[in-house]
Amino acid sequence: MPPADNTPNDYQRSELRSGAVIHIWGRENPRAIIILQHGFAEYAERYLDSYCRLIPSLLAHDYKVYALDLWGHGRSPGKRSVLNVERAISDHNELRRRVFEEHPSRPIFLFGHSLGGLITAVSLTTDPSHVAGIILTGAALPAQAPIIRSVILQPLAALAPTLRLRYTRVQVENACQRPEEYQKCLNDSMVFKGHISLRLGATALRAAEKLWQAIDSWTVPTLIMHGTKDTYTAHEQSKVLFDGIHASDKTLILAEGGYHELLNDLDNKQHLASILSWLERRTKSTVVHK
C-alpha cells in the first residue's frame, strides 16, 4: 500500500454502481481529464509512487485523473484478481459517462496499461464518443484464439471461474529493470503474485475478439508504447493494432530492450516525457470525438 503522505491533498474517492472504487485527483477546472486504468494484479494508487510518479506528474501539468480499481484489485471488493473483463469494460464505460457529465467542456483522454490497455481499447471501440485521445502501454492484446481453445475454455470458466491457470504466475522479476522498483513491487502486499483465473482468461479472450472485430471504427488520436523485451504481453500485437486502426493521428513507440512496465524501466523518464509531450500537443487544439 502506498504511504499515506504520498497521496496529493486534492483527493476524493467514489464508487460505481458495481461497487468498484474510483480514485479522483486534481482541481475542478483542469486543462483536461485522464481516465487511468491499471493492469492485472496491481491497483490505481501504485501510479502515485511508481511508474515514474505518473499521477503526480499529470497533476503538475494541470490534468485531473480518474483512476478505477478493477474488481478484485486495490480497494475494490471481490476475490483478489478474479476478474470478469467484460464487466470491467462496462465499469469503464460507466466511469467515462460520469466523467463527461461532470466535465462536459474538458477533453477526456484514456490511459490503459497491460490488461487495462485491453479494457480501455474495448471501451473505446464500444463507445468512441467524447474521447480526445488514447494512450496504451504494454497493452494485453491477445490474438484471436483458435476455436478449439474457446470451445474448451469458455465452459470451464463457467463451471470453475476462480480456478487458476497453470504457468500464468505473475513474475514480478520480469516487470521492469530498475532494482528499486522490482523490490518495491515484490514487497507490496497489494500486488497479487498468483496465477490468472479461468474467468479472467476466458473473458479477456472474448473481449479481444470484440476489439479485433471493431478496430475499423478506431479514429481517435492514439499513442501506443511497448517494450520489445516484454515477456508479459506481446509487442507484436501492439504493432498489429497500430496498423489496423484508422486514426490519422497515431504514434507507435517500440522501446528497444524495454520490459513490461516502461514507466518503471531504465528509460522511464524518457517514456514519461513522451507521454506528457504527446498530451501537451493534443490539448492545445483538441477535437473531441462526439
TrEMBL record:
Q: Which InterPro entries match?
A: AB_hydrolase_1, AB_hydrolase_fold, Hydrolase_4, MAG_DAG_Lipase
Cross-referenced Pfam families, in alphabetical order? Hydrolase_4 (PF12146)
- All copies of domain Serine aminopeptidase S33, residue ranges: 29-267
Which protein is depicted?
A: Monoglyceride lipase
What organism is recorded for this protein?
Answer: Aspergillus awamori (Black koji mold)
Q: What is the lineage of its organism?
A: Eukaryota, Fungi, Dikarya, Ascomycota, Pezizomycotina
